[in-house]
Amino acid sequence: MSSDRGIMTENLRISAIIITYKRADELAGALENIFAQELMPDEIIIIDNDPATSGRAVIPADDDRVKYICPGENLGPAAGRNLAAEHAHGEILLYLDDDGRFEGNNATRIVHDNFVKDPAMVFLTFTIRNAFTKEIQSFEYPGYTTANWDKPHNVSYFVGSGFAIRREVFEQIGGFDEVLFYCEEEVELSFRLLNAGCTMQYDPAIVILHRTSPKGREQLRRSYRLIRNRLYLALKNLPWPFVFTHYLLWGGFAFIQSLRGRELGQFMLGLKSLWTDKLWQRAWEYRRAHPMTWRAVKYMWKNEGRLWY
């Protein structure tokens, strides 16, 4: 699956997308960072998940390239990203967090040139560094270790703080699974991308400085989402041997985390929701219709994919 792979396009439109929630100050900084890029995106789409429209105050009123959308409820990152894609006109969707900043002013140029140079490119992810320590943290790197952070290479999943994808392919695979709301939605999308025959590239030349703002995280319910989302995405996408290891390893990890965080009740609610929300049935029906190919498994095996856990 790809878009017009045999055609070399000299100019691709970029839709920069930011999902924000109760972080007007961070959103202002993110917009300033984008406006400082030497190659401006063709449009900037802001999805404000705060029903109180807190982000509207920092939106420039005199720039029609900025589209502000408030859905009136907190859709979460997954549905928010899908909504933005519905309003986008660019061939490339460039997703950014409101608490992330590009390092340097040539990042959008590098993104654009990557896709122009390689018409077969579908997905591009970036280096994510802690904005204050400049470290690459393992949980924000798409691999088991950060040993190859300085070299372009194929990857099997990504971190949502910064990535780009061809809109055509994003639409063809159905975007993010909105059942997940938040947590693991990137891994789940990666499974479907790879199963559709796509590859995913990592380019260390594009760096996001992630500020990891504590604001707007009141509804995360981490133990609930960790067990619910991991078990759901494994059953939905993975071959049976890897479903069993996901259930064993992630189930145990989520249980221990819930005890440490005094969230055992949230852990149990997450398990219960797999039945009450009919997620078992939804995942089972999807895996029967779209079994993962061994080509995708081999690709993930070679490129440090999330197979066993």
Topology (elements, then pairings):
Layout lengths: L13 E7 L3 H12 L7 E6 L17 E4 L6 H12 L4 E6 L2 E3 L4 H11 L5 E8 L22 E3 L6 E5 H6 L12 H11 L4 E11 L11 H16 L2 H21 L3 H13 L2 H11 L4 H9 L7
- What form results from the Cα inertia axes? globular
What is the CATH level 1 assignment of the largest domain? Alpha Beta
Query: What would you call the structural class?
Result: alpha/beta
| Weakly predicted, low-confidence segments | 2-9
In the CATH hierarchy, the architecture of the largest domain is Alpha-Beta Complex
When the domains are counted, the total is 2
Major sheet description: 9 strands, mixed
Order of helices and strands: EHEEHEEHEEEHHEHHHHH
Q: Helical element count? A: 10
Rounded to the nearest angstrom, the distance between the terminal CA atoms is 26 Å
Percent of residues in beta strands? 15-25%
Instruction: Name the CATH superfamily assignment of the largest domain.
Output: Spore Coat Polysaccharide Biosynthesis Protein SpsA, Chain A
Q: Considering DSSP H and I runs of 4 or more, what fraction of the residues is helical?
A: 25-40%
Report the C-alpha radius of gyration, rounded: 19 Å
CATH fold-level assignment of the largest domain: Spore Coat Polysaccharide Biosynthesis Protein SpsA, Chain A
The overall average pLDDT, rounded, is: 94
Number of strands: 9
